[in-house]
Structure formats: structure tokens, C-alpha cells
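Good day; I would like, with your permission, to put a structural problem before you. The record follows directly beneath this note:
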Amino acid sequence: MIDALTRKISELGADSYYVRQVSLSDEEIEVLIRRSRRKTMALHVSPDELVELRVPMKCPWAEINAFLESKLNWVAKVRNELANMPRREKTRFQDGSVHRYLGSDFPLRLVAGRPNLVMQTQGAIVLRCSKPEREPLVERHLNNWYRTQAERFFPLRVESCLQKFDESIPFKKVNCRRMKAQWGSCSRNGEICLNSMLMQVPTAAIDFVITHELCHLRHFSHSKSFYQLLSSVMPDWKEREKLLLS
């Protein structure tokens, strides 16, 4: 917690944050409070158990404290869930290590040679590069391959998902890149951006993320109208969301 907080503070300007210590069950924790241009307060607990509260620029401290106090039980619940989650082993990028593609696991087969090449066969992902013993190099080539596959695959899935909408969606373009903290995002100009690492999950989960972002082009918040539209287009979205997170 302290390490995560220190890391976050180092990224911010000296006047951009406040730290408040609160009592949570049988321990004291620190909450990072940041003022921003958002209109409402938002509380977030990250996987490293950093608790961050973002508030409007002119929000009174009395309201901030009251909001935080009302959410302490929720914070305790989330931190407990995170603490009990099984820790994932670090992904290895060596011959025989297992990597996922569209929901299926494949062993990685490394071959020394040029030019660089990655391809998925029926039984493996084959990667050829000059120095296959260097894991960072293998990782970079493999991630680039995921992105290339995504650039080909995502537009096809977007077109398929768009056909399920009865109403017009102001969609213009799909982009993809590797993102650390989210599967997808959208902008008011009609563009959606998808995480290239979605190529690791089943197509049904990819379609959920795409449909979720397309619904946001009509309803930008997670309002009742947003969920009504999502449910009408994809009635099984909750099952697909679980598939994405599994």
C-alpha cells in the first residue's frame, strides 16, 4: 500500500493531491485524494490496493469526507477480495511457455533465424527471431504480433456487432493498441480504441467489449439507458463479461 501510494504521488505535481488516513476495520490506511475536472466523486481501489478518490475541483471538504466515510465498508470489501485473489505467475517468454490466443492455450515454439516471424499453427505459436534466448525481445515480437492480428480481426468483429443494433450508432473508426488498465475506450468523435491483448480472450468476450464501447457512443455514462441498450443488443452480456475476466 505504501509503495503503491509513494509511486503514485511521484507521478503527480506537489499541489495535485492530498493524503488522508482513515480507520478501516483493524488497520489504518491512506487514501489519495485528487481534485480533477470531473463533475462527480469517484473512488477506485487498484490491484495493488491503492485507494484513490477523485473529486471535483471545488467540492467542499465536508462532502468529500462524508462520501469517503460512506464508502469505507465497500473499500474494505474490495481490498479483502484483492488480498485473497490468487497471484498470477509471471508470464514467461521462452520455448514451451504457454500463451493464449482467442481463448485457447498454445505452447510457444522459438526458432533462431531471420527475418522475424510469428505465426499461429494448429498446435503452437511459432516465433522466429535472431536471439530467441532473450525474453524481452521475444515478448516484444509476440506483443507486436497480437497487435497485427488485432488490426485485422477487430474491424470484422465491430462490423458484426454493429449489425445487432436497431438504432444508428455514431461509429466512425476502430483503433487498437496495448493498454495496461482497460480493455477498451471511446471518444465523442465516434472512435473506439480496443486493447490489442484482447486477442488472448474468446471471440465472445471480444464482442462484449466492442458492444460495450459502441453503446457508450450513444450513452457515455453507465446510466440506466446505457444498460437497457446493452441488454437489448446483447442479452447475455453478464456471462460474456465473466468470460472476459476469467
